[in-house]
Amino acid sequence: MLPRSIRIPILLLLAVAAPACRSEVVPSQADPTPPPAGADTTPSTASSPTSSTSTTTTSTAPSTSTSTTTSTSTTTSTSTTTSTSTTTSTTTSTTTTAAPSTGSIYDVRPASNLPAPPLPSGWTTRAIGTSVEGRDITALIRAVDAPEYVVLVVGGIHGNEPASPPTVRAMVEAGFADDVSVWLVPELNPDGVAAGTRWNANSVDLNRNFSWDWRAVDGGNGPISEPETQAITTLVNEIRPDLAIWVHQPYGYVSSVGETDRSLESAWSIGSGLPTRSGVTQHGGGESWTVFEAATPAMLIEIDTWAATDEVVRAQVAGLQELLTALGWDR
């Protein structure tokens, strides 16, 4: 068995510099500068996003209509002339509930009500830090003596991604080999999850706050300025995982970040049904920081819907299981 000190380079053929060609984590839309702190970001529809069909306006002769305006003017002199004009317009508008995969990345979404599975025997919990508002950032830990491999999975980076935390919690049910130590962090951003917002309580997007390619326009007051990013970067440096997995939604792909082994994204794709997407990086992103600064192989999972259902969660647990099998880390 190879020692852990040389196993990471086997998974990660890491270039010293960041790749020349970069693509955003968000593939299907631009990721604009977030609204200023204090702005009203509540969506116009209360709980689920909606879309409207196109509006059709028709003009008809007077008949049954939505609205009728009649204008009459009368002029009297030697003779009387009456002029009457009638304009009728009918406007039809249809509003339908949008598919769960639609909606803005800035919409407010409540946390999922999916129940957490019971913690299996041998698992413990630990607070790895606290949020801006003082909530514990909790890790679910499967500790083993002298582990051959260490896996870290992080969810709830954006508080309005309701499928991410239950997906990570459900991974306690995956079949890990006896020599694999596991750290699951379901809610890196517990304040955001409680509020249903993308940002933490300081109105900072945590996935722009990491130090790799950090930018002042959307990354907070400085690289790793937030207690949540401080907690997870400290944990990564403490446990030195052989693989870190970051779970987001709703863009629908799985990616081995940087030079992380492409076969890993293929395995997850087989189990989950998500397509693969290579070459993904994100300025200030946790998954990119993990690879390019912490020198740790990392994967980005983008669940393909805003919905948080048992079916959605199970698909990603199946992806993880296929990955463990491909690596020989399953039981």
Written overview of the protein:
The chain has 331 residues and is of the alpha/beta class. Helix content is 21%, strand content 23%. The protein is built from 7 helices and 12 strands. It has helices spanning 4-11, 164-170, 190-195, 227-239, 262-272, 286-292, 310-327; strands spanning 50-52, 56-60, 67-76, 80-92, 95-97, 123-130, 136-142, 149-154, 180-185, 243-248, 253-256, 298-302. The strands form 3 sheets. A 7-stranded mixed β-sheet has the order 6-7-9-8-10-12-11, with helices on both faces. The protein has a 3-stranded antiparallel β-sheet with strand order 2-4-3, with no helix packed on it. Helix 2 crosses helix 7. The longest helix is centred in the last third of the chain and has 18 residues, at 310-327.
Largest sheet: 7 strands, mixed
Poorly predicted ranges (pLDDT <50, ≥5 residues)? 13-101
Query: Strands of the biggest beta sheet: in what spatial order?
Result: 6-7-9-8-10-12-11
Quaternary assembly: single chain
Please report the number of helical segments. 7
Q: What's the alpha carbon Rg, rounded to whole Å?
A: 26 Å
| Terminal Cα span | 17 Å
Query: What proportion strand?
Result: 15-25%
**Arithmetic mean of pLDDT:** 80
> How do the helices and strands follow one another from N- to C-terminus?
HEEEEEEEEHEHHEEHHEH
Helical proportion, percent range: 10-25%
Total DSSP E strands: 12
Instruction: State the secondary-structure class.
Output: alpha/beta
What is the approximate shape?
globular
